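Title: [Solved] Leucyl aminopeptidase family protein 3D structure

Original question kept below for reference.
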Amino acid sequence: MTPAFADPASPSRPLHVVAADALEPWLEAQPVAVAVWLRDSGFKAGLGEVKLIPGAGGAVVAAVIGSGTAKARARMRFGLSKAVAQLPAGDWHFEGLPEAQRFEAALGWLLAQYRFDRYKPASGMLPGLKCPEGVDEARVLAMAAGEFLTRDLINTPAQDMGPAELEAAFLALADRFGAATQVVSGADLARDFPMIHAVGKGSDRPPRLLSLRWGTQGPSLTLVGKGVCFDTGGLNLKPSAGMLLMKKDMGGAATVLGLAQMIMQLGLRLRLRVIVPAVENSVSGRSMRPKDILTSRKGLTVEVNDTDAEGRLVLGDALAWAAEENPELLISMATLTGAARVAVGPDLAPYYTDDAAMAAALEAGAVATADPVWRLPFHDAYEPVIEPGIADLDNAPGFGFAGSITAALFLRRFADHPRYMHFDIYGHTPSDAPARPKGGAGQGARAVLAALPALLGI
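Solution (posted by the thread starter after getting help):
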């Protein structure tokens, strides 16, 4: 589906936005019938609280939504998007919405329109919204469209989103924006990207490496996304409960594709490259084994101490390839470790960078776009942990601590780039939240998009 605003020329009903501490003055300024109706209905202007206002004939002529307190707004972003599920169909426009809240309200409304209807048609018509005055309509639509793509890809079950299907989605996006593409598979993949091949060779759905290039002017940006379409854990087989969400293990790929769509849809002046290793980590007689030693594209050897730590293997080869061109900014995104979830939960996107200025730019972008991130350290003192002695690197050290950090340190060996940033995302919302329905979710993409002017000088 495609997010959309209502036609600015169409008739629309007002949706009055009222803060809790401004409710009484607002009520006093309303017609007596409206004030009595809202008081008798118990309206308190809590964040996302909606009341419909009937006209003389009983039809709904307006509505009011509470914007709560400043504390409530800080604790729950996109609270005004609750109106999407509570208003009758038809077009609406905000009344009384402070300028500082308009961008978030517009974006939240669009994000709340999302429905995953591939297997079950969505029921009912959603209310439309006119884009609030002063909001960059093209920008907010691009952010929502990119997020919709990410959610669709993650939500699609692995039976319909294997390496071949992810390739098809990748090529469709490239074709839509006129990007050049390259697909590496078969003997070429085994020769040139041995760790990607090793992870994917156990599956009957062959692995491949996908690349697109878009733009001919401006600074260079390379995005690398983990595309493990399903992760059984390999011979280190996951328990049943551990596999339930593994259709989302290509969430890094889905997120960089969503970000790429935002960039291309907005026509940003940069040279974009997107790289996605697309594999399925399965069990068969061809599967890689614990204690196998792989020689990577970079030439570093890696001891496989856990076949379920496969994401860093496929990213290692992909990052080495990306770094060979020395882009001005290199970013990887992956649903990489459970340790990151233990550290910050499902809402925050942990990220790593050695560059304080890059971190400051990203965090400003995160605040501006309601896309929370949290910086974790490339802690050099843990480097020896990922060095097993028998090979250059260990894909799953038995350290027992700092699993997200040691995974990030592993990836940094392959990126080997001064302006490298890595995101260890979750890619999933565990329960419905305003503008974030349960299921697949992008993390960090909007923050990166907002930070690109500072990061690349565009």
